[in-house]
Amino acid sequence: MASVPNTTTFSLQDVVDAVGGSQSSLLDCVEDAVGSGYNPTYGSEGDLDMLSFRDYEEVAAEKAITISPFTYVDVSGLGADITFTVNTTSSWVVSLPSSDFLASETSSGTGSGSFTVNVAFNGTGEPRTGQVRVTTTGVGTNVYDTSYIEQDSGFE
Fold it and tell me: Structural domains in the chain?
């Protein structure tokens, strides 16, 4: 199934062409898209909320990188070292956006490999969340995979 380009300039006809039917409004298209397995939310890019009618099964087949563990990793407030595995045929870089309590000695690699992230002791008295992102480089459009680290308070 085709997908609507991820731009801010797509038209109602682009959406109708991607999800089928003869909808007369964007709301009808969203309802049909959700009913056929599309995800109408794409997250946020800064303050700009984005809408995507991409077929995520199609996108997953195109994805050029995965990391594991993925999604959420729970960590004790005492800290820990977490080893991540990268699966790709491309060059990649590690970033830790807005996560000053995370550190990685490895900042890049080529092809599949692994790296370790050190999670420091949490002395804030509050739980906190950080991101580990691995992004491909030199593949035309760079793609990335993100894992979130949830750390308990260090005072348990």
Answer: 12-60 (no CATH), 64-151 (2.60.40.10)
